[in-house]
Amino acid sequence: MKIGIVGGTGDIGEGMSRRLSSRYDVILGSREADKAHTTSECTIDLLKQRGFKSSCTGVSNQEAVSAADVIILAVPFKHLESTISGLSGFEGKIVVSPVNPMEKKDFFTIVPPPEGSAALLVNKLLPGARVVTAFNTIAANRWKDLDAEIDVAVPVCSDDADAKLVIMGIVNGTSMLKAYDAGPLAVSAMIESLTPLLLNIARYNKMHDVGIKFV
Amino acid sequence: MKIGIVGGTGDIGEGMSRRLSSRYDVILGSREADKAHTTSECTIDLLKQRGFKSSCTGVSNQEAVSAADVIILAVPFKHLESTISGLSGFEGKIVVSPVNPMEKKDFFTIVPPPEGSAALLVNKLLPGARVVTAFNTIAANRWKDLDAEIDVAVPVCSDDADAKLVIMGIVNGTSMLKAYDAGPLAVSAMIESLTPLLLNIARYNKMHDVGIKFV
Predict the structure, then answer these.
(1) What is the pLDDT of residues B123-162, one digit of tens each?
(2) Contact B194 A189 (CB under 8 A)
(3) DSSP assignment, residue A186?
(4) Residue pair A44/A67 in contact by the 8 Å Cβ criterion
(5) Where residue B116 falls among pLDDT bands split at 50, 70, 90?
(6) DSSP string covering B161-208, please?
(7) Does the CB of A103 have a partner CB in chain B at under 8 Å?
(8) Are B190 and A180 in contact (CB < 8 Å)?
(9) Rounded to 10 degrees, what is the CA torsion of B71, B74, B80, B86?
(10) What class does CATH assign to A2-204?
(11) How far apart are CA B120 and CA A47, in angstroms?
(12) Across the interface, which of A191, A193, A210 has its CB nearest the CB of B214?
C-alpha cells in the first residue's frame, strides 16, 4: 500500500515516515520537493542503521496525493485549507486527518471551524474523498523516537466503514498503537478535543508527550 | 469534611456515596428526603456488611447544600439549571460539577450550553461558589461495584487553585482514582467532551464502562 504524507517534512510527518516506511511505501510530500527528498533519504538511512529496509520517496505534495492510495494530511490546522485548495486528485482515495484545530492562550483550547471539526472541514473541501480521523493525539516526539514503542490508544472515526477498517489496520500494525472504532466522522469533534486536553494535562502536571489509553 | 451530594439518589450519586462515605461525612440530598434517607441507610448497610464504618445521612437537596463543605452536583445536564435555581447557600463553598451536556442521536455527542460547558454554566448560575470540574468520566456501574477498584484518571480543573487541590485530594483518596490538574475552569469543555467519546468507544468496540488513563 502507498501512503502519501502531505506536509511530510514537518515534525509529525517526518516521525510518521520513520514508523510507517518499514511496512508501507511512504511517499513523502512537501511544498518543496527537494526538502522532501532530503527528509526521505534521512528516514531511509536512519532505518538502515537499525537494520530495517524501508521504502520512502520525497516528492511534491501534489505528487504524493497523485501517487498514494492513502493520504495523511500532516499539516497544522492554520495551513489546512490553503494546502488542500492547492491540490487535486483526492477523489476515491482515503484521506486521513490527524489535524486538531487548537490555540494556545493561557492554556490550550479547541477552536473548531464552523463545520464542527477539522475532519468535517476536510470532508466538505474534498467531496468524493473517503475521510478518516486518526492519529490525532500522538506527539511528534513519540513518532520520531524509535528507541521507544508508542503504546497508546488511537480513536478512529469515519462515515466510510471500509476506509475506517483500512486505517485501523495501519494503526494496529504501527508500533504498539491500538485502534478503537469511535463511530461516524462527526465524532471527530470529540477526538480533536482530546489533544488540547492532553497538552494541558502535560503542562499542569509536568509531564511530556502525554497519550491516552482506554480502560 | 462534609460532602453533600445533590441528586444523591441517582445512580451516580448513590455510587459516589458508597465510595466516599467510609472516609468522609456524606450528606445525600434528593428532591424527596425520604428517598435520600432510604438510600443512605442502604449505603451504610452495604458498607457494614463489608466491615467498613461509614457516615451517610439522607436529607433534602437544600439541606445537603446547607450542611456540606463540598457539594457535588450529581444531576443530569437536562435538570442542572432547574435543580440549582431551586437551591441557595452555595456562596463560598466548593461546588463540583461532574455534569456532561450530551445527547444520544445515532451516536453520543456533546451539546454544550452557550457558556461553553456545564461547569461554566454552574459558575454563572452560582456567583461566589468555588466551582471545580471532576469525576466526569466515571460510569455509575464503576462507582457502585465495590468488588472492583476504579483505576482510572480523573482530570480536574478550576479557577480556584485551593478548591482544586481539595478536590484532587478527595479524588486521590478514592479507590485507585488518580487526579490530574487540567488547568482553569475553561478546560471543562474538553473534559466534558471525553464522556460522550468514551460512550462511543464503548458502543463501537463492545466494551463496558470505559475509562481513561494518561500515559
Answers:
(1) 999 999 999 999 999 999 999 999 999 999 999 999 999 9
(2) no
(3) G
(4) no
(5) very high
(6) HHHHHHHHHHHHTSTT-EEEEEESGGGHHHHHHHHHHHHHHHHHTT-S
(7) no
(8) no
(9) -50
(10) alpha beta
(11) 49
(12) A210
The tens-digit pLDDT sequence of chain A (215 residues) is 999 999 999 999 999 999 999 999 999 999 999 999 999 999 999 999 999 999 999 999 999 999 999 999 999 999 999 999 999 999 999 999 999 999 998 999 999 999 999 999 999 999 999 999 999 999 999 999 999 999 999 999 999 999 999 999 999 999 999 999 999 999 999 999 999 999 999 999 999 999 999 99
Residue B85 DSSP SS3: helix
| Number of helical (H) and strand (E) elements in chain A, helices listed first | 8, 11
CA distances from A18 to A41, B155, B190 (A): 11, 32, 31
State the Cα–Cα distance between residues B166 and B134, nearest whole angstrom.
11
Find the Cα–Cα–Cα–Cα dihedral B51, B53, B59, B65, rounded to 10°.
-130
pLDDT score of B105 = 87
Tell me whether residues B215 and A215 touch, CB distance under 8 A: no
**How far apart are the C-alpha atoms of B142 and A214, rounded to whole Å?**
14
Largest CA distance in chain A: 47
- Cβ atoms of residues A171 and A135 within 8 Å: yes
Inform me whether the C-beta atom of residue A183 falls under 8 Å from chain B C-beta atoms: yes
Q: Which helix (H) or strand (E) holds A178?
A: strand A178-183
Q: CB of B25 within 8 A of CB of B92?
A: no
How many CB atoms are located within 10 Å of the residue A14 CB? 23
Q: In this structure, what are the phi and psi dihedrals at residue B77, rounded to the nearest 5 degrees?
A: -55, -40
Instruction: Give yes or no for residue B187 having a pLDDT over 90.
Output: yes
Among partner residues A106, A152, A201, which is closest to B182 by beta-carbon distance?
A: A201
**pLDDT of A59:** 98
Confirm whether pTM is higher than 0.90. Answer: yes
